[in-house]
Write a structure and sequence with these properties.
By secondary structure, this protein is of the alpha+beta class. It contains three helices and five strands; from the N terminus they run H-E-E-E-H-E-H-E. The protein has a five-stranded antiparallel beta sheet with strand order 1-2-3-5-4, with helices on one face. Bound molecules: guanosine-5'-monophosphate and zinc ion. Guanosine-5'-monophosphate binds next to strand 2.
């Protein structure tokens, strides 16, 4: 299911260009337009899902696929040895700005902790 007004639905449908690094029947991964690290990729479901909080028990397969894809992208980007971070921002306090579920994959430099 798509939301015609959603930016990431449009990227997944290739209506808006993005640097896509992986896609399959369920997921699309593309480079963040404002990267916070040398590697910054977003992994999103093709179907519109507003956030992690909008998922339920029936989405376990999708959520597993998102994390598995994040791992494979990190490997393909050469991040496995030095490490990387996966992040899901959810809602206002989580800092979510695009309301289509996405996993950030960040790496290529040492990342600070804790977040602000
Ligand atoms: P959030 O803040 O919701 O966790 O992350 C949204 C991310 O989407 C941000 O890191 C932002 O840079 C990225 N973003 C926003 N608009 C676009 C766009 O049009 N194309 C791409 N590739 N990334 C985008
Ligand atoms: Zn969407």
């Amino acid at each position: 299911m798509r939301d015609p007004s959603c930016l990431f639905c449009k990227i997944a449908a290739r209506e808006i260009p993005a640097a896509i690094v992986h896609e399959d029947e369920r997921l699309v991964a593309f480079r963040d337009i404002g990267p916070h690290a040398p590697v910054h990729v977003l992994v999103v479901p093709r179907d519109h899902v507003a956030s992690l909080d909008a998922t339920d028990e029936g989405d376990q397969g999708l959520l597993g696929a998102l994390l598995s894809a994040a791992r494979e992208i990190a490997r393909a980007e050469g991040l496995s040895e030095d490490g990387y971070r996966t992040v899901i921002n959810t809602g206002a306090d989580g800092g979510q700005t695009v309301h289509h579920l996405h996993v950030h994959v960040l790496g290529g430099r040492s990342l600070g902790w804790p977040p602000g």
